[in-house]
Amino acid sequence: MVFNLIGEWCVSNKFTTASQLCSYVCITPTIRESGSSVRGRARISKVGNKKFRKLLFLCSFNACKHNKFCRAVYERIVNQEQQKKLALIAVANKLGKQSYAIATSGRPYDERYFSVLPK
Question: Is the pLDDT score of 43 beyond 80?
């Protein structure tokens, strides 16, 4: 279901990068500060698409069990003594970026595929 939603949005050229998609869903951290004295901790914004954010968050539970890259992100954050909910939001972000890459490339998901960044 997530892939269908992302695929429809990518086809309509609504998003040109995975970061734009994650920002639209609001699963990226938002820092709230005012001047030099008031500093709040980073939180996710509640402005974006609520249904899609909820769907990605719920899918992150399953991704932590079955997707080795998402599991690695989750375990790395939890081992840094961070909150588990923060780790799940990071996994939802990763899952959104993975699904965007699959939707735009047109290739089926391959667990052994590694993208090579240009130098």
Answer: no
